[in-house]
Every structure is written in C-alpha cells, then in structure tokens.
Amino acid sequence: MLQTYLWPFLVYYLILFVVSYVVVEYGQNYLYDEVPPGMAPKVALGTLILAGVMTYTHSSFATMFTADIGKTTGLAIAWSGIFILIYRFQPWHGFGLAMATLLLFAGMSTLVVDSMLTPRPVDRLDLTKENKLIRRPTGGGGPIAAPATKPAPGK
CA-CA distance, 108 to 68, in Å (whole number)? Predict the structure, then answer.
C-alpha cells in the first residue's frame, strides 16, 4: 500500500504543487495584473485533487499518448477543470495553461514515479571468474614508456 499509493501520491503532490504555484502566480499576474487573494490554499486543494487523479490513473510517460490516451484525456479534463474552477483562470487561458502544464509536468512526474517504483536487479561481481579487461590499450598494447628527455641547449 505504502509503495503503491502513498509514495507516488507524495511525489506527484510535491512536483505538482511547486509547478502549479509558479504557473498560477505568474499566470494570474501576467494575464490579469493581480493574483486573487488566498491563492496558496487554492493551489494546495487543486494540487491535492490533481495528485489524487494522477495516482489513480498512474499512466506511464511511454504510453501516455498511445495505449493510455483515454487516461490522458481524463487527466486533461481534470486539469482544465482545476485551472478554470479552482485556480480561477478564464476558460481559454485555463485550458491553455492546463494543457501546457499537463503535457510538460505530468509526463515528467510520471518518469520520476516510474523510476522510483521499478525494481532494479543488483549487479554482482562473480569473483570465481577471471576478470577481463573492458577495453584494450590503443597504443600497441605495451606498457606506457616515459617520455624521452631532450638534452639541455648548449651541451
């Protein structure tokens, strides 16, 4: 349970909170010349919902636009709703910012979660076998000789 749901949720929440806060703060300031009051709790609530949806769908970046296009469409609807209804953007602005943020940072955060949850085999050295060189020396295979010294001038 902890490995499957809690860690991905926390990673999604951390990444999406930072990204959403920056996008909402600068987006509201740039588009409307002011940031609505109480934006931090709104971003925290919106990010909580987005992280929950991302954890539930758990789409992989490799299949996000092919086999899991249905999940991606659901994510796009959720993100647009959050940006329009909770973050208080105008519909076209909210849709555009939501799609840009979804395409960039949902994929990035799924890469992070997938790398955390994928088991890695442990490479061990087999000490019973003779170790072989990984590559051969390029200069003829002999030992490296000391450079020849030039005699001092005037002698």
Answer: 16
